[in-house]
Structures are given as structure tokens and as C-alpha cells.
Specification:
By secondary structure, the chain is of the alpha/beta class. It is built from 14 helices and 15 strands. It has one domain. The strands form 5 sheets. It has a 5-stranded parallel beta sheet with strand order 5-2-1-12-13, with helices on both faces. Helix 2 packs across helix 12 and helix 8 packs across helix 9.
Amino acid sequence: MTTASDNLIFAPVGIAHLTSRNADLLRAAADGRSALRVTTAAQLNGVPHFGTTVTILTVFAFAAHAADALGLPPTVVFDALENAPAEHVRRNGEYYTRTVGDLIDAGRLDGATRTDGFRRLLNWARDRSGVPYEVRPYRVYQNLRPVRECLHHIAQNLDGFAPICAPTDGIVKVRPRCPACQLMEKAGRRLRITALPDAVQLDSVCPDHGPYTEHVPIDGGGWYDANTPVRSIQKGYLLAAERDIYDACSVSADGADWGGAWHSQVLAPGLATLAIPARDWPISVFTPLVVDRTGGKLSKSLYVAKGTYADLPELFLNLDVLLADHGEHILDTLWTEVTRWAVEPRRLHRSYTVDYFAALLTDHLAVRPAPRAA
């Protein structure tokens, strides 16, 4: 049976000329290592949408392919970012936030609704691929010694990191939360970051409770919210350290929107400023973007906030709806697709439209009708 995937035209891309299989990207870094660790991440904003689902399945498929080609036992590390903003408060013209984790701890959000969809998907991908996984919450991640070391290095060189992490306003955003109400100033205009001998001191001001201080020792303790560019650089530093901690080939696997300008303007100069030799950098692998009909990244937040993509079935925005409409067999259809991406450079290094996936679903339904409602 001919499917949508068989009808694609693959224009040559640069990296495809250098590799016959995608595992070739890892060969030098994997040489002499005893394990393979592939790290990915997602904010716990709710049920995974279609793009996140495809990314996570691709990460497991890539880990399985690379493990087989390189002869290394694999692990997928899923960084679960419960520090994602969940509440926005405006005070005196400034915006403040509270995180998903804070609202879960306060009983204002159901933690299960934020994690069950991810856990279901991760379990399915583990069982299908044979690749085990670890979940690493942000509260654990931010407390790891290499991550704290990186934070200390950044605090010691704010002038060097400000053009990388904050080219618009020059404010490196490592936010403490008010100990009384957990509010954090989003813009960081009243944030002060000080490098102490063995810790980082964060000073800020709560609109309701006044000034406060958070001490963040290198050895652990305390809490802070690193914004995306800081966290990206910290992740690169951590994965470089994990090469020796686990004797592993360290791989960072993310959607392709984290490649290109982000990689060249944030991650690469960040690691260079930290004086990490390029040979120790983690390998970066980027999964295909799921794009809308105009070529833009499919965005769940735009769909929810503005009604964008109103003509698309909700299954593209919600894993629960996808599985309710089509059953878990639809994941087998997606798995067949992404395993081809995982191996073939010409399939991995490109984007795919929602219309392409709609055609895949049509092919799936032609073979296996959707389950009937109970």
C-alpha cells in the first residue's frame, strides 16, 4: 500500500551529504564510551500536543537506532519542566508569575493532569522501542552540581553572558521566588545576581511582601528559575559533564526550532564562553518540526489563546483526543513514520505539515477504522 510518506520529494540538505545514517552524527563522540544518554525536555503545560508527541516518539526512535548502530546501551532522559509559568499577575505595571510546580504544591492545579499524558506517552515509547527512560523534574535538575557550577560561572561573568542570554535588555534572568507567595518578577528589572565564593545570591522584590534574598549554594539547596537561554546553556554544560559522570555519549535531542539561530547564537557561544572544548560538547540532534499550512510551527498556545487553526481537528492539539479518536494503534502509525526519520538523514532534516499528517491518519483509517464510542 502506498502511503503519504512514499510520495514525498526530498530535496538534498547539507548534512545529508555527510552521513549515510543518522547514527553517523554520534560516532566520534561515542567512540570508547560505555553508554548512550539522549536528553529531551518539555514544559508541563498540560496534555502533550501533536508536535510534542511526534518529538518524543522521534527521540526514542533515534535512541533505539543509535544504540543498535553503535552497540551502546541507551537511556532517554526526559527533563520535565514544572517551572513553566502557570499564573500571570500584574502589579504596578510589572508582570509576575507563579510556576506549574508552585500551583500544584498549593493544591490549585492537579499534578496528574500535567503529568499523566506525558507518562502514558513515555511508557508507550519505552515499551515500543525497548529504550528505558528517566524523568528528571526541574527541581532536581536545577539542584545538580554541574548545573549549579554553570550558574556560578554565569554569575561571575554577567557582562560576558548578557549579550548571549539577553541581547535586548541585558538582564540575565535567574529568578528567585518570594518565600511568602512564590511570585517572581518576570522581566527581572529589580533582580540582582551576586557570585559569592561558593554560592550565588539572588535579590529581588515582591510587590506584596517587599525585598527578599535566595542563596543558591553550588553544593545544593535553594531554588531558582533559570529562563530558557540560561537553562539551555546549563543543559549543554551538564551534558558535557555527563560524558565523564556516566562514561556516556551525551546527546541533546530537541525540536528543530532549537537549532539554527538558537544553537549558533545562544548555545554555542555560551559553551565557548564557559571554555568548554568543542570536542566535549554534547551532540545536538534536532527532530522535524510539525508546521502549519503557512510553514510556521504548530502552536498549541496560539490555538488555545487565539483560536488559530480553528479548522484543524483537536487531535492535533491534544494527545488525549488523538488516542480517544483513534486508539493507541495510531501511535503505531506514527512510530512507523518516525523510525524512518530516525535512520535516514533526508527524512530527519526537514519539516512536515499538518496536512501531511492528516494524510497519514487517512491512510491509517483506511486500514484500521477508528474505535467506536462506548
